[in-house]
Design goal:
By secondary structure, the chain is mainly beta. It contains no helices and 37 strands. Strand 8 and strand 9 (77-78) form a beta hairpin. The model has no long low-confidence stretch (mean pLDDT 96).
């Protein structure tokens, strides 16, 4: 019998890892709420094909990096060089372009351009959290060739995230028949694995044939990488074109990866355009980074806007921000960003919001229950991230490893939980303290009705 050690970490219900049995309940994917347009790619050095957006928090400022480009359909080529730009925000909503005086465009350096040349097509930066990182390499990035004949994924380094240099003149990851870096490729440092992890484009049939797919590679030093492997998927889901990946360790539970690929359907065309194909955003999750649960239901649909039904729209930017809720400014929520009106002169980025841990829940439409595998926890209180209707509820029982209720912690002892909270303590008639049970194998039994349970945590 496997015992799951969860300590005091947050355990979101993105998958069934904790669940032993479940009756009249199901895992339910939730969808983010579309908010305002936060950025329009309307400067003369930007344009209709600007994209491949990366967003993260850097100290007290949110930063956005993106490709600035414009395609002239009549001429059949780019109307100006492809650049990399940086924008900033204090709230994730209002973004500004700092005048960085680095690269000249039309006789002026008063712009937010930070890079031009190799890698500009899909330059994707990150903050290196490796404890051994050199001061002048705190920021790193990857980008592929841009028509120069140098094929592969190149590494870049920076001390401030603004002034960049090529790490070396040869690629850190090589292309081959299956590995072709022709979309947004990402790298980050995983502090739990003590490794750099790369997720990048691959083609299942090789040589641009088969399906666009996601591949993975790993490195201890950012220069020497393991052989790239295609991701595996649970539940025998059908192959689909996954254009990008936007994979990241979930910041509240970094032992779990989440990803937001853009799913591309090349044979469809809803809005008349020179290029066919439609896209949406999907959600997937993994505990080892190799085998994934991929939801076939769309996470972000194109929706009612015709411009989101044009080829290569609905690409989720890489990165999640913690922002304040408009409905309750005292509550944090997650902001994520998706492209729309790509290939038009209205090319822009829209913000979406979702509750903390709110991507997937255990959902009860009517009364049901689930029981966890045996767990060992470390904490004084059990807290829930949950939502119920006015009539709904959640009750929790703590059992011994054999499934028998522990005295004073039975379902009948539990004080009914209802409402909506990111973090609320479970109480029984004798109080909320569970510290005498920590370090000992136990099971949790949840009884729910008209409710969603997003995550649990034993907290000190």
């Amino acid at each position: 019998m496997e015992i799951k050690e969860i300590g005091s970490r947050i355990e979101p219900f993105f998958d069934q890892w904790l669940i032993s049995t479940m009756d009249n309940l199901s895992l339910q994917l939730h969808h983010p709420i579309p908010e305002e347009v936060v950025f329009e790619f309307n400067k003369e050095w930007e344009g209709n094909t600007s994209g491949y957006v990366t967003i993260f928090k850097d100290k007290d400022v949110f930063k956005m990096y993106y490709r600035a480009s414009n395609y002239d359909f009549k001429a059949g080529k780019e109307s100006h060089p492809v650049f990399v730009c940086c924008a900033e925000s204090l709230d994730g909503i209002k973004w500004t372009r700092p005048k960085l005086n680095i690269i000249e465009f039309n006789g002026s350096r008063k712009n937010n351009i930070i890079w031009q040349g190799i890698g500009s097509h899909n330059f994707t930066p990150f903050i290196d959290t490796n404890p051994s990182v050199k001061k002048n390499e705190k920021y790193k990035a990857v980008g592929s060739y841009d028509g120069t004949g140098l094929k592969g994924l190149f590494g870049f380094v920076s001390e401030d995230g603004i002034t960049w240099k090529l790490m070396k003149n040869t690629p850190i990851l090589q292309e081959d028949k299956y590995v072709i870096f022709d979309s947004q490729n990402i790298v980050f440092y995983d502090n739990l694995k003590n490794s750099y992890i790369a997720y990048h484009r691959g083609w299942t049939g090789g040589d641009y044939k088969g399906y666009r797919a996601i591949m993975r590679s790993e490195s201890k030093d950012f220069e020497n990488w393991s052989e790239s492997e295609f991701l595996e998927y649970q539940d025998n889901v059908e192959q689909e074109h996954l254009y990008t990946n936007a994979i990241t360790p979930y910041f509240r539970a970094p032992h779990i990866y989440i990803g937001f690929p853009k799913r591309f359907v090349p044979e469809r065309q809803k809005v008349q355009h020179q290029y066919p194909g439609v896209s949406d955003g999907i959600f997937m999750t993994s505990r080892d980074g190799k085998k994934w649960k991929r939801w076939t239901e769309a996470f972000i649909r194109p929706g009612i806007q015709p411009e989101r039904w044009i080829n290569r729209n609905n690409m989720t930017a890489w990165g999640l921000l913690v922002t304040k809720s408009k409905l309750n400014p005292g509550i944090d929520e997650i902001s994520l960003y998706s492209s729309e009106a790509y290939y038009t002169d209205k090319n822009r980025l829209r913000r979406f919001t979702i509750r903390l841990d709110g991507f997937v829940s255990i959902n009860a439409k009517k009364q049901g229950q689930f029981v966890t595998h045996p767990i060992i926890f470390d904490g004084n209180n059990l807290v829930l991230n949950y939502s119920t209707s006015a009539a709904g509820f959640i009750k929790v029982e703590i059992q011994n490893i054999d499934g028998k209720p522990i005295k004073n912690y039975s379902i009948n002892d539990c004080v009914e939980i209802y409402g909506d909270s990111i973090e609320e303590k479970v109480r029984w008639n004798n109080g909320d303290d569970v510290s005498k049970l920590k370090g000992k194998p136990a099971r949790l039994r949840f009884v729910m009705n008209d409710a969603d349970l997003y995550s649990i945590r034993f907290k000190n």
